[in-house]
Design brief:
It is a single chain. This protein is of the alpha/beta class. The protein has one domain: CBS-domain. Helices cover about 35% and strands about 20% of the residues. The strands form 2 sheets. Strands 1-8-7-6 form a 4-stranded mixed sheet. Helix 6 packs antiparallel against helix 8. The longest helix is centred in the C-terminal third of the chain and has 12 residues. The termini are far apart. This is CBS domain-containing protein.
Amino acid sequence: MSKQFHALPVRDLGRTYSLATVQPAYNIGSGDSAVHLLTDFCQRRPPALNSDMNISEARLWMKMADTAFKLVENGAGECVGMITIADINGELPLSLANRRGVAPGDIRVKDIMSPLSSLPATHYKDLARATIGDLVSTFRAVHEEYILVVDNDRYHEGEQYLRGVISAAQLVEKLHIPIDLEHRASSFSEIVNVVQGNF
C-alpha cells in the first residue's frame, strides 16, 4: 500500500519579516567533554581546495564560503594538508613569489599550506575521554590554531581516517572571552583562567 504525501500549506509574506532569535548557546566549562568542540566530518564533509589551485582563486573560494580554513586535497582526492585565510593573506605568498621570481598569482595552495604531517593530531577515543580543560592544556602545549582528530576506519582494519578538527578560535568563542589568538602564550594562559572558573 503506497503512502500518500501532501503538500505543505504555503503563504505569502509581507515586505519585511522578523528573523528568528538565536537560542542561547550551551555554556561549556572545564569539566565538559572535549567532543563538544569537534567539527565532525562524519556529520558534514568539509569542502576542500585542490592543491594545485592558485592562491587568488583559493582566497575567493574561502571568502565565498566565509571560512577561516580549508582542507587541501591532491589530484587523487587524498587530504594532504590544511590552509588558512591567514596563510593566504599573510606575507608568505609574496615572499615566496619574490624568491622564485614569479607573480604572486603563480603561487599554488600546495606551496603555502601546512602539510598534514606538520599538524598536531589526536585520536577520537582520546578526545572522547578528555575534558575542555584537557583540550586547553593541549592547545597550550602545541601552540597551534587547529588540532586534527583521527579515528579508526571500521571498513579497513588497521587504517585510520581524518575524523574532524578542533579550532582554538572556536574554543575562545564558546567560552565568550575576547582573546587575540595571534599571541598564543598570553591567550591560552587567559583561557586556562577562564576554564578553571575565573570568568
